[in-house]
Design brief:
By secondary structure, the protein is mainly α. It has one domain. The protein contains 12 helices and no strands. The chain starts with a helix and ends with a helix.
């Protein structure tokens, strides 16, 4: 009975469920405040994004005449369900995740891809030309950041195996990566993985869809792109998905490069995670948002397949040769 209650707590409260939703809301609110202050504006309240979600929930859901109703309504729910599953694989509570296996990173990668695919499926089901343009841009963005993301994962996995002298070629277990860092220090302290950490910092804003990499929305160009025909509760789910993804990506960086920092107290571990995620939000999203103009689609592709992929590849080569 105790085992069942613990799993329900992990699933519904912490680190999944309520905690990841609350962290997404707070981080997205902090991001808006930080951007406003850097632009010398007052900015909205911390919980403004949550108020926007509640407002959307109270609005009528208008389904376009030519939309495929079932797919149109199911896509945002499926994407959100896939996203809130990811925190259950992150060992942020005493180094022990709710779900654990030998291929955690592969599952996380597939779930993140599924979130983007659900957004594209929902856009195609709406029948809007603006959504069609946003869909094509989202596909380009996903192709752009997936390559450096995979290279970062390979570099971290290979480095952990080499340093622990395990008898396997690679490890995709987040628990093993966390345990290694708990015993030997964060992986970001190894100079060969610093380029991979920098590459991951660039991957985060494009994966989340934040400015200046928000080419799939681009309000001034294509009227919110994939979300142009969404309203009411489905739009609220999409907004909540965007906020939770912000937390998921920063928490994933924390586990991959800054893992092992556990006090043995769940509340203290949560506070450390929140502070790290806030700092990463400022570095990877708020600061670029305040100082950079939006990239064009071809610029996003070129940037990620040259500079960002190059950084990740440098780390992978250095790790492969044992440096």
């Amino acid at each position: 009975m105790e085992f069942v209650l613990n799993n329900l707590f992990f699933l519904l409260v912490y680190p999944g469920g309520l905690f990841c939703v609350a962290m997404g809301i707070l981080l997205s609110g902090a991001d808006r405040i930080l951007v406003a202050r850097m632009q010398r504006r007052v900015g909205p309240p911390l919980l403004q994004n949550w108020y926007d979600v509640l407002k959307c929930c109270g609005k009528e859901t208008i389904i376009p005449r030519h939309a495929r109703r079932g797919v149109y309504l199911f896509a945002p729910v499926a994407g959100f369900a896939a996203l809130v599953t990811i925190p259950l694989f992150l060992p942020v509570v005493n180094g022990r995740p709710a779900f654990s296996g030998n291929s955690d990173l592969v599952v996380v990668l597939y779930l993140l891809t599924l979130v983007s695919v659900c957004g594209m499926v929902g856009a195609s089901a709406s029948g809007s030309p603006f959504a069609g343009v946003g869909l094509s841009r989202e596909m380009v963005a996903m192709i752009s950041y997936e390559l450096p993301f995979v290279l970062v994962i390979l570099a971290v996995s290979l480095k952990t195996v080499i340093l622990s002298e395990a008898g396997v070629p690679l490890t995709f277990s987040l628990t093993e990566i966390w345990n290694y860092q708990a015993a030997n220090g964060p992986l970001i302290c190894h100079w060969s993985l610093i380029p991979a950490a920098l590459a991951m910092l660039f991957v985060i804003p494009c994966e989340v869809g934040m400015h200046p990499f928000d080419v799939a929305e681009a309000e001034t160009e294509i009227c919110e792109g994939m979300l142009s025909e969404y309203s009411g509760k489905p739009l609220a789910v999409y907004k909540l998905t965007h906020m939770v993804k912000l937390y998921v990506m920063t928490a994933l960086f924390y586990v991959l490069f800054l893992g092992g920092m556990s006090t043995g107290i769940a509340a203290a571990d949560g506070a450390i995670l929140a502070v790290v995620c806030l700092l990463l939000t400022f570095l990877t999203m708020s600061l670029p948002h305040a100082v950079c103009a939006r990239f064009r689609v071809e610029q996003v592709f070129k940037f990620y397949w040259t500079w960002v992929s190059g950084l990740a590849l440098v780390s992978l080569v250095l790790v492969f040769f044992g440096l």
